[in-house]
Amino acid sequence: MDQLARDIRYAVRLLWKSPAFTLTAVVCLGLGIGANTALFGIFNSLLWKPLPVQEPERLVRVYAKGAGDTWLYLNFSYPEMQDYRGKNDVLSGLAATTGAELGFRTAGTDPMRVFGEVVTDNYFEVLGIGPRMGRVFVSRHDGSLRTVPEVVLSHRFWERRLHSDPAIIGKTVWLSGAAFTVAGVMPPAFKGTASVSVFAPDLWLPIGTLPQIDPSYQAIFQNRASRALNLIGRLKPGVSVPQAQVALRTIAARLERSYPESNRGVTALVFRELDTRPEVYNARPVNLVAVLFLAFSALVLLVACANLANLLLARAGARQKEIALRLALGAGRPQLVRQLLIEAVVLALVAGGVGLLVGYGVSRAVSAVSLPGDLPIVFDPAIDTRAMWFTLAISLVAGVAFGLVPALRASRPDLVPALKDGSWTAGGRRRRLTLANALVVAQVTVSLVLLVAAGLFWRSVAGARTIDPGLDTRHRALVSFSPSLVRDDALRTSTFYRALLDRLSQVPEVERAALASWVPLGFQLEESRLIIQGGEARPDQDKQRALVNVITPGYLEAMGVPIRRGRGFTDQDDASALPVVMVNQTLARLAWPGQDPIGQRLQVDGQNQPWLTVVGVVADGKYRTLREPPQPYMLRPFVQQPTSRMTLVVKSARDDASALAAVRREVQAVDPSMPLLDVKTMEQHLQQKVFFEPRAMAALAGPVALLAMVIASLGLYGVMAYSVSRRTREIGIRLAIGAKPRDVARMVMTQGLTIVAVGVGLGGPAALGVGRVMRRVLVGVAPTDALAFAGALALLAVVAVLATYLPARRASRVDPLVALRQE
Prior knowledge:
Layout: H1 2-17, H2 19-48, E1 59-65, H3 78-87, E2 91-106, E3 112-119, H4 123-127, E4 133-134, E5 150-153, H5 155-160, E6 172-175, E7 178-185, E8 203-206, H6 210-213, E9 230-235, H7 241-258, H8 260-263, E10 267-272, H9 283-318, H10 320-328, H11 333-367, H12 385-410, H13 415-421, H14 429-466, E11 476-481, H15 490-504, E12 510-516, E13 527-532, E14 543-551, H16 555-559, E15 563-566, E16 580-584, H17 585-591, E17 601-604, E18 612-618, E19 633-637, E20 646-652, H18 656-670, E21 677-681, H19 682-689, H20 692-726, H21 728-736, H22 741-773, H23 786-812, H24 816-822
Parallel strand pairs: 3-8, 5-7, 14-19, 16-18
Antiparallel strand pairs: 1-9, 1-10, 2-3, 2-6, 2-9, 4-7, 5-8, 6-7, 11-20, 11-21, 12-20, 13-14, 13-17, 15-18, 16-19, 17-18
Helix pairs in contact: 1-11, 2-9, 2-11, 2-12, 2-20, 3-7, 9-12, 9-14, 9-20, 10-13, 11-12, 14-20, 14-22, 14-23, 15-18, 20-23, 21-24, 22-23
């Protein structure tokens, strides 16, 4: 240990005495490590960081899936959840959650919209987490529902909305008009377990208190077809996910036999909690993106390490006399290798510190990015302990892996020539330059791959706009309403919506206005299980999942959705008329293959509603993501299926700003107390989720690729400059016997561009392979997109010419007399 400490002190002194070399090496390697640290911090926070609860590795999520469902995952009803919780021997606990949008106010304040998680009483017990202040819910010993109106607040909500009120515990607050008592405040790190991991609830309330907010919720405790609950469980010690899968599928089969009307063809799927982020539908492609980006950043680190190796080789050439002298005085080769390797590791550790600073800065910048709207989307990447260990590991690996070869070569000089005049003879000049050139070839190859990948991601941003979402986004604006913030009266709510639409139909700034329970390609949607009349003759078609939207007449025109067959809804489709429905082309094809869907009937399972008659077929569209396969989708008239929370879709007559101003004016005239929520254009709506993903990937990939290219260009410049310095005598002789400066410059540039050409030749096929791997995460662009490849090649060519031109220019200006005199 004493010898190691002496070697470290000596390495630090040597590096301190060579500030230019040390600064260059630390900055180049630090940027490479920083790119890895930043990306690891981002993806760790989003995908891989365990929940801050007890033994998070034992947490699982449970989903249901129908026999004919290839895309949609189902939730569970409350009776089903009780069956799974009470009859399994693989889970030590199973809790249920669902989302709720509520009006929240305290004494003397106006209501505000909040988003909460409605949870079973054992929710916090299953997670194994306690409060920061107060207490949490606990299960009753007799298994009965907790109906005491209590609420637990998130730390973020308590801090930002309630100004960290220290006396909040025990106070009364109102949720959509019902009085609740604040029981506790959760720790800052806990952001809930919503099915979308970046969605952070403001509060939690017991599921048994829902009827106090809305008496209609009482039905969910008996209705097996009301699938609104997400299940999260904890594996018993020693139980694996596959074992839990088998056990819960057995229960699902038993429920199918006992309740064929609601559970026919329904099975259970078990996932590790970490395998469902950021949501179960896109967990695999997002994890693929994460792996791709970490691979890209690893390539950047490889480029930086190649630079470090070249710098160490050059430094070894300058220190050859010192190394030869130490060997002549009796130093052993292992001792020299250890010393030189320690220098490389010290450099890498200092660069790791720089990388941590870079990673911290990138994390803060990402945290500052906000999306339009007021949804509680929280993404706060941090350089935590896991990221620090990751940085330390890659720093040590970089130092050892790319310091070892230069150390081995530097410790084996030819002693006599080295002691005599300091000339390098270890392995010969040709071999040394070949290794340096090979490192630059690798840098160019990697840079081209990264530039092409970044180009594909940037092209994907434009490609996303070429995919037809099934609706028209031009001159459209959205405004959401949540009447529960100010009242919970269905009649007054319906009257407000009807009066607002009547007034907007007379406003010149608005060409068309309509309401929908949700707008496609957002964060909210609804789905139900259907019964198709006549399905008994087709067992594979008797049940069908479909996304369900509730709309007012004029919605299709306002959104630019074409009707393919039949008609749309009219004012005559009121509560006293025949119950009707519209379906999209996919649902029509699945439910009635080879038949005319107009006049066919279906029923929404479990709602005790009459048969609905199909009156129209609308064009298919995109409802959840642009990459999704065609999904079954149906529309119901608002008057026949009234709901509280609705979104107003406005088609502007002139511009969105004037149309939104008119909406604000008319809402004020109809009901001054009604707040306007999520006011945005259709373009902003798509930016929240649809366009955000490709833009985010492009924003991450672009700097990574440019960083790799800059480091590679520095490496190319360094090799060429060092080559010129070592060939000063040769260049002087060439000029003395009549060579022209431009000939010398051409010679040096040809050498450098040949290296680049070899790298491009290797990088082209590699980029094609990477593009094919990226196919699943690209939107609207081919993995062989010619523009992305051409742009990458052009940018790399410009940088390569600049990197070789400067040393060539220096070589062409060598004074032959000075060069020969120095020799």
